[in-house]
Amino acid sequence: MTVHAPHTAPQDLPIGMGPQSFHIRRLGGRPLRFRGVELAMAMGFSPEHAFWYEINAYRKLQGAYAVAVRLFHSATDEQDVVQAWPCDGLGDVLETLERYDATQDVTVSVDPTDPDLSAAELAAHALDLRARTEIHKRAYAAVLGDLLHQLDDAG
What we know:
Blueprint: E1 20-26, E2 29-43, E3 51-60, E4 65-73, E5 81-87, H1 90-99, H2 119-154
Antiparallel strand pairs: 1-2, 2-3, 3-4, 4-5
């Protein structure tokens, strides 16, 4: 894993670590395209979970930044999701990543309007949803912490 200081000019990077073209597909949006360098990448794969996060921070050649949050699923019937945002500065990168809400990534597996569900079954589903929400929040927070640590070390 390579981490570049946020203020390192692309021409000062080691040979082979120069600017690249990035084309980040986004769910429900236009792709984010730019030339630049990846400042940091953190990933939180764990075989005990059916999903994992990857977070990338980039510096564009024009001096602006970009970030991407990827949610991968081990199940083939679940769609992986990529969200990416352009950012004006490093502060905007940090704010965007800290504002990301991992609870939006939790799928609801029950129809609460199903008349055949008893109150006890609904309560059990609610507890399951709460537990899965906490798992997503913790998984994202762990990966974000790793990425922020890398950026801090580089800067």
